[in-house]
Amino acid sequence: MASYGLSAAILGACVLAIHLIGAEETLYVAAVYEHRVILNPRPGVPLRRRAALEHMEKNLHAFAEQGAHILVFPEDAIHGFNYTRASVASYLETVPDPEEVTWSPCADPGRFSNTEVLRRLSCMARKNRLFLVANMPDRQPCSRASDPLCPPDGQYQFNTDVVFSDNGTLVARYHKQNLYFEAAFDTPPRNKYVTFTTPFAGRFGVFTCFDILFREPAVTLVRDMGVRQLVYPTAWMNQLPLLAAVQFQRSFSYSAGVTLLAANVRAAALGMTDVNYFCLVITE
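Above: the chain sequence. Below: its structure as tokens.
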């Protein structure tokens, strides 16, 4: 494995207070994180993820000192995004379903094998006492004997968001439903609507980047399930005239009447530029 690693540079972050008005008043502090991912020039050669994780942890501590209750990392922030199905394989970890398994990778690192990223993210959340949302590649084994949609290599590969509670427990896992030219990943065979609950602000919904342009899962979460707070890792490429990140994501937030915590990666050459946080006062 190459020794130079996947490096990153912090370019921007923000911390904001969100005031929800309803049956009770709630004040919490949310942070969204942005950094520039230096893409692997040779995607077939695995790189170490340690540098990116250590850089993210250093900046996470600064947010925690400002009182952040929840932090959202961008899509593709740990591993980059220029991979094929084969070349992303060394970055895959199997993320268990938190609806079936209660697990803190930080407190119980030996329970499952090959969980370097899950363990580091869990420990970041636990150490800094905040909810943490991150994006990573996920492998889910399958068999064509029981699942006719199982890929020929015997595993699904998903673009996955993970959420850890402030004690490091994995509380949510979301597989991106609407892929944007992502050859490394599979579309989930079934729609799933993922939420998690916090002690400081109640329920949050989860979806990723290109999902926001489709009914599933975004509209169902908001309109049918009544979710009013959303975490949104993204690697958004600004496209004129109607698909600039701030323009589109703010419009979604305003029209749906929701708080959208959107964290974008930085890749100026690809039009990825903005950290976004769109917060509304919600009246019941």
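The helical segments are 50-65, 116-128, 215-224, 245-256.
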